[in-house]
Design brief:
Largest sheet: 4 strands, antiparallel
Order of helices and strands: HHEEEEEEEEHEEHHHHEHHHH
Shape: rod-shaped
Low-confidence stretches: 43-52, 359-371, 380-387
Mean pLDDT: 76
Structural class: alpha+beta
Length: about 375
């Protein structure tokens, strides 16, 4: 079936035509105006505007008021604090959760993150967050106790602990914090020597700077809390770094030599003390031996004296025989009675063995024989004195 057929078309039979687009829009406007109490459009072609009635304006005002009141709803995150201002003056401080305040222009809201840890660099700037990173001489150069120049860099970490004080007490809290920390750094470094700052005093100096800075911040009521202060670097100025390095090397060599001497002393002194103690113990043992031997000889002499007083002749003969026995036992002489008919022989095997021994051993034996002979002679004299 063709569309150009007079009797049939897509919109139905009987010659009906589709509605015009302008007519559809006009009907929609008439219905919308009727809802708010307006007069519908006439069927004339005039372009008269439709003015809403008083009831329609009331509904519009109510909807606008509701939207304005709804704009005062806000939600505070767990890490934030909300500060509400009424006509620019502090009204209240709110915590996490949903809240409501009178919308602008009656009240306004400021959000402050009180859990975020922020950092500040003093004496240098990080190239990652700053276009021009590097050393800042106006902040890093300072004098020590000995009037020496030092180049020190510090990193300060802080957070907001009082949102109201942070917003209203100081015009620029971060600038105030920087000036306070710089003042504390120069105060603490100026009270210590250069060697102490560069070597073992880093941690103590950082702690002192933190305490002094926090005291000033509390006095100013800035609303900031310093968490940590770290000394990033401390060096002498660049023109004197070579001389300072030589001084440091000399000091390290001095300390090394002192340590070596102390090690040697720790090795020698115990040995010397042990040797001295051994000699003392040996002398005490020798003393005890000599005293005991002397006491024994004196006791023996007293016993012999008692026997001698009882039988002098017998005791004298016994002492003589004992003395001669001791003397003849330690001598190489052989006493032979010329009247006796006895045959003498030489011990050839013993003579060969004596010749085969080293001279050193022979000398030692001769020395021991001399010592034994000396002891025997000494005993002989003692026995003679007894007699």
């Amino acid at each position: 079936m063709a569309w150009n057929d007079d009797k049939k078309n897509p919109w139905g039979g009987n010659g009906q035509t589709p509605p015009e687009l302008d007519e559809v829009i006009r009907d929609f406007k008439d219905k919308f105006s009727g809802i708010f109490g307006g007069k519908p459009r006439s069927n004339s072609n005039s372009e008269k505007s439709i003015t809403p009635s008083a009831g329609g304006a009331k509904y519009i005002f109510i909807i606008g008021l509701l939207l304005w009141l709804a704009s005062g709803v806000y939600i505070i995150d767990p890490a934030e604090k909300g500060v509400v201002l009424r006509f620019g003056a502090f009204q209240e401080e709110t915590g996490q959760g949903p809240h409501w305040h009178f919308p602008y222009p009656i009240e306004s809201l400021s959000r402050v993150n009180v859990e975020e840890i922020q950092d500040m660099q003093i004496g240098y700037r990080d190239a990652v967050r700053n276009r021009r990173g590097g050393n800042v001489s106006s902040e890093s150069l300072m004098l020590t106790k000995g009037e020496n120049m030092i180049n020190a860099k510090f990193a300060v970490q802080y957070r907001i602990n009082d949102a109201q004080a942070y917003l209203f007490n100081v015009a620029n809290p971060k600038m105030t914090l920087r000036q306070v920390v710089e003042s504390a750094i120069r105060q603490v470094v100026g009270k210590n020597s250069m060697d102490y700052v560069l070597t073992e005093g880093r941690v103590a100096i950082a702690d002192s700077i933190k305490e002094n800075s926090q005291e000033l911040l509390d006095v100013y009521q800035v609303g900031l809390r310093i968490t940590t202060v770290n000394m990033q670097d401390a060096q002498p100025p660049e023109p004197v770094q070579a001389a300072f390095s030589d001084a440091v090397k000399a000091r390290e060599d001095k300390q090394r030599l002192i340590n070596e001497a102390q090690t040697y002393a720790n090795d020698i002194l115990p040995k010397s003390r042990g040797k001295a103690a051994r000699i003392l113990e040996e002398s005490k043992a020798y003393k005890s031996k000599v005293v005991s031997k002397s006491e024994g000889e004196a006791s023996r002499f007293k016993q012999i004296l008692a026997e001698y007083t009882k039988a002098p002749k017998v005791t004298r003969e016994r002492l003589y025989r004992e003395t001669m026995e001791n003397v003849l036992a330690n001598t190489s002489k052989v006493v032979v009675d010329s009247k006796a008919n006895s045959m003498m022989y030489l011990p050839i095997d013993k003579l060969l063995n004596n010749n085969a021994q080293p001279n050193k051993i022979v000398v030692q034996d001769s020395q021991s024989d001399q010592v034994r002979q000396g002891n025997s002679i000494r005993n002989v004299f003692r026995n003679r004195e007894v007699r």
